[in-house]
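can u do me a favor
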């Protein structure tokens, strides 16, 4: 199989977890504490992956300056875009409670939520393709981490969208579209940056990691803390450790 196609399929697999999570969140009324706990675990997993699979590898490939500049650039770009989307109704797009606004309350918020979901998914999907640049083999730890974190994202967000009166067509159409775009983004991460210099690849990888960390702080961690604040730190620590163990096994 062509490597670029394999990258796309890995991205599609990780993005497919959003659809699976959305199905569970829409079909079953899970206790909010459970949703928050899964979100906390996913956040810990993703923090570990971006630390050891993205930032560390970017540093090894292109040095500290390219990595740091890319990391900060990705965080700033995501934060600015997220700030703009929050102003037009997408601030609580991953919340499972009553926080999300309906289209009647905030006209255009549906489109803002769709763009926000795309903004959240692209950096981590690109990161999957970037992990394949070294030798053509995907980082299993990164794919697993993104898959695990996407499950609670889809679950929590779809539950909140349902409470806000979004239609099933909107909810599942959105997540299926994002899953496909995730595959395309992973393919692009591999195909577009392979010919770049090590410094440019390091900056790109760092940028993806910075955007993912900003996304976690802005969208996933607030839901995790509010629903399971007495245990969210411990659950996130367990997720971090599990992801770290997978990363170590993968590099052994």
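np, heres the sequence
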């Amino acid at each position: 199989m062509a490597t670029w196609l394999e990258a796309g399929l890995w991205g599609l697999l990780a993005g497919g977890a959003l659809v699976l999570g959305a199905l569970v969140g829409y079909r079953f009324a899970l206790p909010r504490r459970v949703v928050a706990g899964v979100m906390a675990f996913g956040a810990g997993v993703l923090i570990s992956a971006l630390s050891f699979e993205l930032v560390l590898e970017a540093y090894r490939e292109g040095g500290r300056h390219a990595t740091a500049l890319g990391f900060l650039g990705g965080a700033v770009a995501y934060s600015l875009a997220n700030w703009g989307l929050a102003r037009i109704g997408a601030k609580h797009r991953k919340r499972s409670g009553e926080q999300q606004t309906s289209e009647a309350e905030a006209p255009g918020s549906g489109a803002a939520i769709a763009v926000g979901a795309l903004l959240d998914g692209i950096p981590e999907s690109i990161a999957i393709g970037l992990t394949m640049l070294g030798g053509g083999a995907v980082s299993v730890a990164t794919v697993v981490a993104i898959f695990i974190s996407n499950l609670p994202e889809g679950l929590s967000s779809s539950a909140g969208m349902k409470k806000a009166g979004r239609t099933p067509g909107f909810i599942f159409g959105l997540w299926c579209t994002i899953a496909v775009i995730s595959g395309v983004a992973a393919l692009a991460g591999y195909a577009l940056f392979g010919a770049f210099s090590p410094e440019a690849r390091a900056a790109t990888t760092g940028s993806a990691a910075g955007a993912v960390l900003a996304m976690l702080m802005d969208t996933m961690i607030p839901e995790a803390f509010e629903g399971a604040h007495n245990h969210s730190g411990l659950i996130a620590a367990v997720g971090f450790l599990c992801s770290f163990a997978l990363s170590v096994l993968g590099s052994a």
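The two ends are 25 Å apart (CA to CA). hope that helps!!
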